[in-house]
Amino acid sequence: MKKLIETLKNIYKIEDLRSRLGLTLLLLAVYRFGSFVILPGIDPNPANFAALRSQSSDGILGLLNMFSGGAFSNASIFALGIMPYISASIVIQLLGFAVPYIQRLQKEGESGRRKINQMTRYLTVIILVFQGWAYLANLRFQLPESAFVMSAFAFNVSSTIVMAAGSMFIMWLGERITDKGIGNGISMIIMIGIIARLPHSLVQEFGSRLAEQGKGFIMIIIEMLIFLFVIAATILLVQGTRKVPVQYAKRIVGNKQYGGVRQYIPLKINAAGVMPIIFAQAFMFIPMMVGAQAIMFVPISLAGLFSSDTLKSMMSSFSNYDGFVYNFTMFLMVIVFTYFYTAITVNPNQMSDDMKKNGGFIPGIKPGKKTSEYLDTVMSRITLPGSIFLGLITILPSFARILGVSSEFSHFFGGTSLLILVGVILDTLQQIESHLLMRHYDGLLKSGRIKGRTGV
User: Fold this and answer.
1) 10-196 under CATH 1.10.10.10, yes or no
2) Contact at 8 Å (CB) between 152 and 188?
3) Which alpha helices (H) appear in 14-151, and where do they start and end?
4) What percent of the chain has pLDDT over 90?
5) Alpha-carbon torsion angle 264, 269, 272, 276, nearest 10
6) What digits encode the pLDDT tens for the residues 52-110?
7) What is the distance between the alpha carbons of residues 23 and 174, in angstroms, rounded to a whole number?
8) Nearest 5°: CA angle at 393, between 388 and 397?
9) Among 60, 61, 70, 421, residue whose Cα is nearest residue 227
10) Residues whose CB is less than 8 angstroms from the CB of residue 368 and which lie 6 or more positions away in sequence, other chains included
């Protein structure tokens, strides 16, 4: 406790760090306030939103509601959240592997990055328009007609503009946090939306357990111990790296010697982050959508091969989030998408070329093609256990629900929520650590890999 108080005092003494933390908290508070501002033209009576909140509890809509910090289920001006910008960033990143123009921009440094950011913003606006109309169409079905106090056309046009402006404002907040605050702004906004649900989930879980006779308190202790163990395992997944040694040749220039030192390339066990889970959850929603449409046509067109009962059974299997079929398919898809996303984000050929240009080589491996093949082999080997571990973390919430954990609190036992929370918190702590060490203060911890010394 004394060490914590001393660390907080050191943080307060650093004016730059103090102002950055203050600005970050202020901008995050603005975001949370906007999440409760309901769209103009809707009666804010809480009874009107019961069906919308029930719909946003699970599935892909539950994922969107989580990323928006509950704004999706509140019909807020921030209902679309930051996901359109993330989607646009992913599209631009994928196009960078197929479009030569974007590849050239990626190699042009700061000027190329500004052009790519501008293209991402334009694409975000386009996505926002389409998602805005889709969200409002769903809103018409979920809210009673009496909840709308404007005509349909005026409400759709004005609300689409308001939600698009709200998402662009969130993006601006994220950029300001990144530039003037602490941590990655977009990740911080997603994290604060997720963590805002934790207190209510804990209170609900504690209340339901304490209501049980005899074993309620013991079950709470067991749950908390398992929860801490899962967090520790997730930290190992996020921080785990394979260090590949790189030797640089010696060069004598005048009276000075350059190179001749050994460094390491840290290859992450989970280089894909949370993207495989997001892709897998999006694809798992497709069978239900296709099946719902196919049921109407199968009895006529393919009556001899399939039946509507067969499709209904398939839809039921993929709709049961705690069932074996859904979780096993999700587990396999996470493994597949982990390999896919790692392959498009980690380029062994570029790493090999960069080492060769800088006079570096892996001991025992020839520069050039052999180095590229070696790095590709290493990445393939370490991605397998990483993808299996990521798949297990993805389906842990289902096991938690089967064992009696409430639906809301079970989301924090794994999946996207826990990975984002752990990743963002570790990244933020590392930045605070670097500020402290730069000014010759003790870091946050005396040991452990969070320290800036080991991070460097």
Assistant:
1) no
2) no
3) 15-34, 50-55, 59-67, 83-95, 100-106, 110-142
4) 4
5) 170
6) 777 676 656 666 777 777 788 888 888 888 888 888 887 887 787 778 888 888 777 78
7) 12
8) 140
9) 421
10) 352, 356
Q: Is pLDDT larger for residue 285 or for residue 243? A: 243
Residue 297 — pLDDT band, cuts 50, 70, 90? very low
Those residues with Cβ within 8 angstroms of residue 180's Cβ, 6 or more apart along the chain or in another chain? 20, 23
What phi, psi does 198 have (nearest 5°)? -65, -45
Domain spans, the chain = 10-196
Strand partners, 42: 148
Record the tokens describing residue 110, joined without a space. 């700061």
DSSP structural state of residue 285 = T
Write down the pTM of the prediction.
0.77
Count of C-beta atoms within a 10 Å radius of residue 327: 20
Q: Express each pLDDT in 203-213 by its tens digit.
A: 888 888 777 76
- In single-letter form, the type of residue at position 341 comes to Y
For residue 27, give the nearest of 157, 135, 182 by alpha carbon: 182
